[in-house]
Design brief:
The structure holds three protein chains of three kinds. By secondary structure, chain A is mainly alpha-helical. Chain A is built from three helices and no strands. By secondary structure, chain B is mainly alpha-helical. In chain B, β3 and β4 form a beta hairpin. Helices cover about 85% and strands about 0% of the residues of chain C. Chain C is built from two helices and no strands. The chains are: A mainly alpha, B mainly alpha, C mainly alpha. Chains B and C meet through α8 and α9 of B and α2 of C. Chain A: Keywords: ATP synthesis, Cell membrane, CF(0), Coiled coil, Hydrogen ion transport, Ion transport, Membrane, Transmembrane, Transmembrane helix, Transport. Chain A: This is ATP synthase subunit b. Chain A: Belongs to the ATPase B chain family. Chain A: It comes from Arenibacter certesii.
C-alpha cells in the first residue's frame, strides 16, 4: 500500500483527469451522439419497415379474405337467383297453365250453355213449326175428309162408338 | 466476421512487433554472469513499469547512456512554473539548472538538489530531498494524448460514415458491434432502458480508452499507462463521482437508512454501506492497475528467463510460454476494459434504480 | 512468533483463488443446465469473480 501511495504521481493524475474530461466531451459531441443516433434511427427504421411489412401482409390477408368472402357471397347470390328464377319460371308456367285451364273451362262452359240455349230454342222452334205444320196438315186433311157429308157422319158415328167403349 | 479478423491482425502485429522490440532491448546488453543478468532484468522490468520523462524507444548502449527516443518537456511547480526539456536531465546522469534551482532524477522522480546533485538519505534509506509538484508531459501523458487523438480520429470518422444511409463503413463495421454490445449487453441490462442513455458516452469512452491503451501497452512501445495507479485512480474517481452525482433519493436512502430492516441494523448498516460506496471505485482502481501490472511483470519475467537460461530448452520454453501469455494478455486487455465498463454500469444502475424495481 | 504479512496475503490469495474456482465451476454447471442463459450467467460470473479478485488484490497490496 505504501508503495502504491509512493508511486502515485500527481502530475499524471492531473493530466489524465484533464485529458479524460476533454476526451469525454469531444467524443460525446463528435462521435457517440451521431453514432448512437444513427444506430437508433436505423433500428427504428428497420422496426418501422418490419411493422409496415407485417401490416401489409395482414392487409393482404384481409383483402384475400374479403375477396374470398365476396366471391362466396356472389356465388351464393347467383345460386339463389338462379333458384329463384327457376322457381318463378315454374310458378309462371304453373300459373299460366292454371289460368288457361280455368279460361278454357269457362269457355267450354259458356259454349255448353250457349249450345244448350240454342238447342232449346231450336227445339222450341221445331215444336212450334211442327205444331203449325200439323195444324195445317190437320186442317187440310179435315177439310178434305169433310168435303162430303157421309164421311162426316161416319166419323161422328165412330167417335160415338168409341166413347161407348170407354 | 469483421471483428475476429480485426482482432487477429492486431494480435499478430502486436506479437511480432512486441518480441522484436523486447529482443532489441535485450540484445544490446552485454552480460556475463547469471547473477548480474538477473539483477539487470529486474532493473529493466522495474524501469519498464515506471513512468519516464524521456520517450525512449530503445536503448542503444546502456553503458554509455545512449538511448534512441526524444526528450519530453518537464513542467514543475516550485514557487512558480518551471519548464525545461528533459534532455537537460540526461536520464538521471545530469543535474538540470533552471532559474537558479537544481533538479535531478532520483528513481524516476524529479527531486530538488544542489549543483552537485547530492541526494540526502534518512535513517531508513529514503531520499529526503524536496519533491516539487511535477506536471511534466511524461511518456504516459504523451501516450494518453496519442490514444485520445486516435480515439477521436477513429470515432469521428466512423460517425461521418453514418451520414446519409446510417450504415457504417470501414473501421466502423468492426467497431459498431462492440458499441452495440456495450449498449445492449452492458448498459441496458444494468442501468435500465429509461436512464441508460446519459451514461453511454462515459461507458463507451472508458471502454475504448482502456481497451486501446491496454492493447497499445502490449505493443513494442510498451507504454503501459494503466499500470499507473494515478491513471486508474482517475478513472475510478470518475465512476465514483458520476455515481454520486446522478444517484437518486432511493440510492441514498438505501445507504443511510436501509428500508426493511430493524432500526438497530439501520444504524449498523449505514457506515458499512457508506464504506461500500468507496470500496467499489477503489476495487475498480486496484483491479485494473494490478491486472495490467501483473500481466506485464509476468510477461517480461518470462521473456527475461530467456537470458538467464541461455539454453536451447529454456529459451524455447520461455518463448512458448511468453507467446501463450501474450495471447492471455490480449484477452486480459479487453477483459479488464469490459469489467471496468460493466462494473461502472452496474454502479450507475444502482444509483438510478427506482424503488418499484425491487 | 511473528507471522509475516505476506503469509496472510498468501492465505487470502488462496481463498480468493478457491472462490473464483468455485464461481467458475458453478457457472459451468449452470451453463450446462441452461445453455440458453449462458450470456447472463457469464456476466454474473465475471462480476462475482471480479469482486473476489478485488479482495485478492487488496490483500496483495496491503501486505
Amino acid at each position: 500500500m505504501e508503495k502504491l501511495i509512493e508511486q502515485f504521481s500527481f502530475g499524471l493524475f492531473f493530466w489524465q483527469l484533464l485529458l479524460l474530461i476533454i476526451l469525454l466531451l469531444v467524443l460525446r459531441k463528435v462521435a457517440w451522439k451521431p453514432i448512437l443516433n444513427a444506430i437508433e434511427e436505423r433500428e427504428s427504421g428497420i422496426k418501422d419497415a418490419l411493422e409496415a411489412a407485417e401490416n401489409a401482409k395482414k392487409e393482404m390477408q384481409n383483402v384475400t379474405a374479403d375477396s374470398e368472402r365476396l366471391l362466396q357471397e356472389a356465388r351464393i347470390e347467383r345460386e339463389s337467383m338462379i333458384k329463384e328464377a327457376r322457381e318463378m319460371k315454374e310458378k309462371i308456367v304453373a300459373d299460366a297453365k292454371e289460368l288457361a285451364q280455368v279460361e278454357a273451362d269457362n269457355m267450354i262452359n259458356q259454349a255448353k250453355t250457349a249450345i244448350e240455349g240454342e238447342k232449346k230454342a231450336a227445339v222450341a222452334d221445331i215444336k212450334n213449326q211442327v205444331a203449325t205444320l200439323s195444324l195445317e196438315i190437320a186442317e187440310k186433311v179435315i177439310k178434305e175428309q169433310f168435303s162430303d157429308t157421309g164421311k162426316q157422319l161416319k166419323l161422328v158415328e165412330e167417335m160415338v162408338s168409341d166413347i161407348k167403349l170407354n | 466476421m469483421q471483428k475476429p479478423f480485426y482482432v487477429k491482425i492486431l494480435l499478430v502485429a502486436t506479437l511480432l512487433l512486441g518480441f522484436n522490440a523486447f529482443a532489441q532491448d535485450k540484445d544490446n546488453q552485454s552480460v556475463d554472469e547469471k547473477g548480474s543478468v538477473k539483477a539487470e532484468i529486474k532493473e529493466f522490468i522495474a524501469h519498464h513499469l515506471l513512468d519516464s520523462h524521456h520517450f525512449t524507444l530503445f536503448t542503444i548502449d546502456e553503458e554509455n547512456n545512449e538511448h534512441f527516443g526524444f526528450p519530453l518537456p518537464v513542467i514543475l511547480w516550485d514557487n512558480g512554473l518551471k519548464v525545461f526539456s528533459s534532455s537537460k536531465l540526461d536520464h538521471g546522469q545530469a543535474v538540470a539548472e533552471v532559474d537558479g534551482e537544481h533538479y535531478a532524477l532520483y528513481h524516476g522522480k524529479i527531486v530538488k538538489t544542489d549543483a552537485q546533485g547530492t541526494i540526502n538519505y534518512d535513517a531508513e534509506g529514503h531520499a529526503t530531498n524536496v519533491k516539487p509538484l511535477d506536471f511534466s508531459i511524461t511518456k504516459n501523458v504523451v501516450f494518453i494524448i496519442l490514444v485520445s487523438l486516435l480515439l477521436i480520429f477513429m470515432f469521428s470518422r466512423m460517425a461521418k460514415t453514418y451520414k446519409g444511409n446510417n450504415i457504417p463503413k470501414g473501421i466502423g463495421r468492426a467497431l459498431e458491434p462492440i458499441i452495440l454490445y456495450i449498449r445492449d449487453d452492458i448498459a441496458i441490462p444494468n442501468i435500465g432502458e429509461k436512464h441508460y442513455r446519459k451514461y453511454m458516452g462515459y461507458l463507451l469512452t472508458v471502454f475504448f480508452f482502456i481497451w486501446i491503451i491496454n492493447l497499445l501497452g502490449l505493443s513494442p512501445l510498451g507504454v503501459n499507462v494503466t499500470n499507473n495507479i494515478a491513471v486508474t485512480f482517475c478513472l475510478a474517481i470518475f465512476t465514483f463521482f458520476i455515481t454520486a452525482f446522478t444517484a437518486n433519493k432511493n440510492y441514498w436512502k438505501h445507504i443511510f437508512w436501509m428500508p426493511g430492516v430493524p432500526v438497530f441494523m439501520k444504524v449498523v448498516l449505514a457506515p458499512i454501506e457508506l464504506l461500500g460506496t468507496l470500496i467499489k471505485p477503489f476495487s475498480l482502481m486496484i483491479r485494473l492497475y494490478a491486472n495490467i501490472t501483473a500481466g506485464h511483470l509476468i510477461l517480461m519475467s518470462i521473456l527475461g528467463m530467456m537470458f538467464i537460461f541461455k539454453s536451447w530448452m529454456g529459451s524455447s520454453m520461455s518463448f512458448v510460454l511468453a507467446s501463450a501469455l501474450s495471447f492471455l494478455e490480449l484477452l486480459v486487455a479487453a477483459l479488464q476494459a469490459y469489467i471496468f465498463t460493466m462494473l461502472s454500469a452496474l454502479y450507475f444502475g444502482m444509483a438510478v434504480e427506482e424503488p418499484e424495481d425491487h | 512468533m511473528e507471522i509475516p504479512t505476506i503469509v496472510g496475503a498468501g492465505l487470502i490469495v488462496v481463498g480468493a483463488a478457491f472462490g473464483i474456482g468455485k464461481i467458475g465451476s458453478s457457472a459451468m454447471d449452470a451453463i450446462a443446465r441452461q445453455p440458453e442463459a449462458s450470456g447472463k450467467i457469464q456476466t454474473a460470473m465475471l462480476i462475482a469473480a471480479a469482486l473476489i479478485e478485488g479482495i485478492g488484490f487488496a490483500a496483495l497490496f496491503a501486505s
